[in-house]
Amino acid sequence: MSGRWDEGGSGRPTGSFDFDNDETMVMRALPQTIEPPHMSRAEARKQREAQSKRAKRGKKVGVLALLVLVIAVLGVGAYGATWYMNRTQAAADYAGPGGAPVVIQILPGETASEIGATLAEKDVVASSAAFYNAAVSNSAEIQKVQPGFYQVPVQSSAADALDTLVAPESRVGLVVVAAGRQLHDSSDAQTGALKKGIYNLIEEASCVGSASAQTCVTADELNTAGASSDLAALGVPSWAMSSVQGVPDKDRQLEGLIAASSWDFDPTGTPTEILRTLVQGSAEKYESTGILTAGSGVGLSPYQLLVAASLVEREALPDDMSKVARVIVNRLAVDQPLQFDSTVNYSLDTTEVATTDDDRARVTPWNTYAMPGLPATPIASPSIEALQAVESPALGDWLYFVTINMQGETLFTHSYDEHLANIVLAQESGILDSGR
């Protein structure tokens, strides 16, 4: 047997013992504190006590840190659970049916939460969370909701409010202005059909309220507001201001300044506020084409470009617009009267392609048979295509054109004799027959 004994005389084995016979015993020593040779037993004891205190403090810090972590996790979990429940569980909601309708606006890019907040603010729904839940439950329906103005009954259930928003009859304050539309009504001499003016279309789009208590901004109120001398309040752009101030018939001073497009307006606004919305939006639309600078190439101001574009709109099919624009520019350059039947028709209540000798003889600020130059105002709302045609007309020396058949075929020429021959073709086709 081999081994080592503690030299300190303690008589305790400090290593391992191996027996040379078949039996082998291995005995591991218990952990012990090794005292430095220079340290007394009392000092060693104090050191052990200090180590024990540090160990206990370390355990306490560890337990405390673990407790803080657990609390934090529980807090986040509770917040997440609360958020989830607010979003997906039952929220304050009206049972319905709703009451009187109110007008709300949905802006481009708004989320279901933002729409819900607007509805809650107007007391359409009891809470924005209820509307959000309804939208989540019917994601296909919420995606149909478009920016604009809607009338929705107050104190509706969230599901009913969503259904109302996607119903076409709930949309208010939406007016569609077709290219060639005028401010005031006119009728066709051939068919007697009424062509509603822009003021009448706005009136129809402005009606709000229940069937028994509906209110509308009338065409007469719009006409009065549109004739105001406060052009800034009407949104007239600076590039049109001086020309509009000089319009002889104030009822027509906004002609052409409401562009052909779909427009949203607040139907609860005043007539002046409604017109300002449409005129300002139209000015931005026109300016996007380059109207402020394009006229330099054809010798026209921005407002004159708009006037010429309205003539192109009423005289030409899309394929011929740039050619008709060139005829206008060429005639103005040589001070030749435009002699457009559309300008004669403008001041008539009943219109048709053909005009009579008496019609053409009437002197008005718009009749280009009776005066040189452009009319006093646009004669309709031009399309952007018509405006672009005037801004950049086709190249050509044409001074005359005439549509020769019902299919819209139009012939252009520089020669007056050729033009007279083309008029005969038009007469033979019946396109110039009068209904009066």
Describe this structure in words.
- Helix 2 packs across helix 3 and helix 11 packs across helix 15.
- By secondary structure, the chain is mainly alpha-helical.
- The strands form four sheets. It has a three-stranded antiparallel β-sheet, with helices on one face.
- It starts with about 40 loop residues before the first helix and ends in a 7-residue tail after the last helix.
- Strand 9 and strand 10 form a beta hairpin.
Features:
single chain, about 425 residues, mainly alpha, Dna Ligase, domain 1, three-stranded mixed beta sheet, 16 helices, 10 strands, disordered N terminus
What shape does the CA trace take? Answer: elongated
Number of strands: 10
How large, in whole angstroms, is the Cα Rg?
A: 43 Å
Number of helices: 16
Low-confidence stretches: 1-39, 78-84
Domain module tally: 4
- List the strand order in the largest sheet: 1-2-3
Helix content: 40-55%
* Gap from first CA to last CA: 142 Å
Name the helix and strand elements from N-terminus to C-terminus, one letter apiece. HEHHHEHEEEEHHHEHHHHHEHHEEH
Structural class: mainly alpha
Strand content: 5-15%
Q: Main beta sheet, described? A: 3 strands, antiparallel
Mean pLDDT: 85
Site (Important for catalytic activity): 315
Subcellular location: Cell membrane
Transmembrane segments: 61-85
EC number: 4.2.2.29
